[in-house]
């Protein structure tokens, strides 16, 4: 019987705001990868439950972007979660709560909540499938809110030090506004891959890339690199091309420190008119 691996983590981020295109899709924050490691690598990782069942994994949490109200600033997120792997099965659960500054002239702060439950199974030693269930709720005004349930269906294939993951994410019914207009969820087809070059026992470099095609017609892509020293110290950098998608283009960098059962990951975003100086840090423990 394989050892039970569990990861607990929590993150706190203070960041800038991007409006995206709220007229085209509802609840866009359901599609953002909040992992500081992934942000530091240009959003080049696809966090999916199918990969959890195949490989060592890290908690997907620690950063968020608020996409729906351009007049807000200083959005903060608190994120926490747990993930476990036993034999050929993987499980995960996470929560995210974001709050913005009070709206001018009102004693009210917009907020959003995202809950995620995921399960994956390794069908063979190198191939796994998984499903995630998401519940999202946003309170834009004191008397106006939206909510939805969505699903991710993913698959992952691993060969030695390489992995390819893909699937369709954020599948669900359209959200109706107060005027009864229907807005689709940000459903996307995703494909990601990474390869790790192991030079010596202590030195390795991972290259990663990811492409997203939204059913609204938008396209996004990210690429990143991670240097690892002895599996303890990590240096990361990346670039994300946002195009007409929910997240704008940006460059990023980050550091990680993994000491025994404890880890800290941080990311910093720059070279972006709307996301400059966004910073996040997550801390966790593995046992």
Topology as a string of helices (H) and strands (E):
EHHEEEEEEEEEEEEEEE
CATH topology: Porin
Overall number of structural domains = 1
Radius of gyration computed on alpha carbons: 18 Å
Task: Give the neighbour order of strands across the main sheet.
Answer: 1-2-3-4-5-6-7-10-11-12-13-14-15-16
Beta-strand content bin: over 45%
User: Structural class from helices and strands?
Assistant: mainly beta
- Mean of residue pLDDT values: 79
What is the CATH superfamily classification? monomeric porin ompg
User: How does the major sheet shape up?
Assistant: 14 strands, antiparallel, barrel
Descriptive notes:
The longest helix has 5 residues, at 36-40. The chain has one domain (5-286): Beta Barrel (Porin), CATH 2.40.160. The protein has a 14-stranded antiparallel β-barrel. Strands 8-9 form a two-stranded antiparallel ribbon. It is built from two helices and 16 strands. It has helices at residues 36-40, 49-52; strands at residues 5-15, 75-86, 89-99, 111-122, 127-141, 144-159, 162-171, 175-176, 182-183, 188-198, 203-214, 219-229, 233-241, 250-259, 262-270, 279-286. With 287 residues, it is mainly beta.
List key phrases describing it.
single chain; 287 residues; Porin; 14-stranded antiparallel β-barrel; two-stranded antiparallel sheet; 2 helices; globular
């Amino acid at each position: 019987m394989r050892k039970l691996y569990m990861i607990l983590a929590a993150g706190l981020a203070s960041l800038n705001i991007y409006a995206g295109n709220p007229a085209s899709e509802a609840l866009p924050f359901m599609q953002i990868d909040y992992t500081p490691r992934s942000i530091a690598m240009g959003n080049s990782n696809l966090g999916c439950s199918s990969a959890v069942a195949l490989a060592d994994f890290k908690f997907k949490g620690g950063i968020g972007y608020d996409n729906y109200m351009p007049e807000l600033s200083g959005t903060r997120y608190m994120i926490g979660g747990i993930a476990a792997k036993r034999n050929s099965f993987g499980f995960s659960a996470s929560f995210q709560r974001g709050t913005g500054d009070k709206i001018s002239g009102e004693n009210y702060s917009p907020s959003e909540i995202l809950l995620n439950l995921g399960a994956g199974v390794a069908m063979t030693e190198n191939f796994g499938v998984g499903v995630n269930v998401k519940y999202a709720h946003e309170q834009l005004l004191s008397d106006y809110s939206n909510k939805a349930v969505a699903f991710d269906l993913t698959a992952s294939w691993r060969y030695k030090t390489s992995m390819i993951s893909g699937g369709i994410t954020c599948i669900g019914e359209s959200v109706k506004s107060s005027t009864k207009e229907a807005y689709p969820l940000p459903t996307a087809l995703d494909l990601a891959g990474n390869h790790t070059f192991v030079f010596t026992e202590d030195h390795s470099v991972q290259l990663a890339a990811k492409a997203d095609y939204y059913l609204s017609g938008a396209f996004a892509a990210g690429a990143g690199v991670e240097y690892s020293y002895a599996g303890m110290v990590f240096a990361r950098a990346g670039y994300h091309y946002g195009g007409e998608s929910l997240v704008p283009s940006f460059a990023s960098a980050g550091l990680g420190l993994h000491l025994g059962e404890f880890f800290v990951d941080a990311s910093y975003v720059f070279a972006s008119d709307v996301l400059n100086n966004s910073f996040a840090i997550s801390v966790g423990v593995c046992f």
